[in-house]
Amino acid sequence: MRLREVTRRYDNDAAPAWCEALFASGLQSSDAPTADTVAEAITIAIRQFGIRGCIARMAQEFGDHPEAAAERMRWVRRLAAGTLPAAA
């Protein structure tokens, strides 16, 4: 299943869902992710947790570890901007 198809049913603008899923994924900056690994990590996170589950995991991290979560979200947004296709 293609990444756009996974997120299309949840939101007309998939970019926020991609960031939330990438945040909730196990992907780390030390993995030196490629566009393919980013797309795979997003797809796996959405399948594993669902969009709402990804959001819940992200919210929990911001509650438990706000500084680390903020840094991870900055990394996620930079990574998403550089590797994900523009939302249709």
Blueprint (SSEs and pairs):
Blueprint: H1 3-8, H2 14-24, H3 35-64, H4 66-83
Walk me through the structure.
With 88 residues, the protein is an all-alpha fold. It has one domain (3-83). Helix content is 74%, strand content 0%. The chain contains 4 helices and no strands. α2 crosses α3. It is globular and about 30 Å long. The model has no long low-confidence stretch (mean pLDDT 82).
**Series of secondary-structure elements, N-terminal to C-terminal:** HHHH
Q: Share of helix among residues?
A: over 70%
How many domains, in number, for the residues? 1
Mean pLDDT across the residues is 82
Number of helices: 4
What composes the largest sheet? none
C-alpha end-to-end distance: 17 Å
Question: Which properties best describe this structure?
Answer:
single chain; 88 residues
